[in-house]
Structure of Outer membrane protein beta-barrel domain-containing protein:
Amino acid sequence: MKEKVFLLILFLFQSIPSLWGQEKISNSFEERGGNSFMFGVDFQGYQPLFLGHNFLAKSYRHHPGFLIDSRMGIQDFVGVGLSLGKNVSKVEEFEILGNDFELARFRQSSVYIYYQHLIGRRMNVEPRIGYGLLSIKHSGPDDFYRLRFEQFLSGVNVNLGANSAKSLIFHGGIQYALLSGADIVINPEDKKYITKSNGLQFSFGMRLEFHGFWK
């Protein structure tokens, strides 16, 4: 089931550019919003999905979360961003860490760089790469336990301007994360199962963009 969902998302992203193929758009530097500086603030919801046979994929029921994102760069072109997110997951199995935890709070932060490829006057495809940290705090009746992972990130968004000035942007995307918890102290038999994972994150949201301060 997970593989079918992943293939469907990839097909949709691959198909989007052909829908606007009849509209000729230049991706030259001169066409990128007059090369004006842009600052954006983003609010979005997301759903995490961890893959494979590992602790993060097998031990939780992951609920949707939210992200707050800020970025700056050149309008419709390139830039850098900072993202902060949180979701709460139900702990379903915790034999390895040996405690009666009920909930796990996932908090993530990341920095990224992005590039926007225009496929319409109001639409672009945005590949990105980044680096982040994931902290997981487990809560129980009498105790808590925290795990920390590094994340190496890559993904793609599709952005659609709601108005001609593109000050309001609606977007959806998919992000892949390769996770490593090399600093986690655990017995050697369980080290790989606990500390290595990978996953996907599906997100939808809207962004306010402020631009035209200078060119």
In short: Residues 91 and 102 are 5 Å apart (CA to CA).
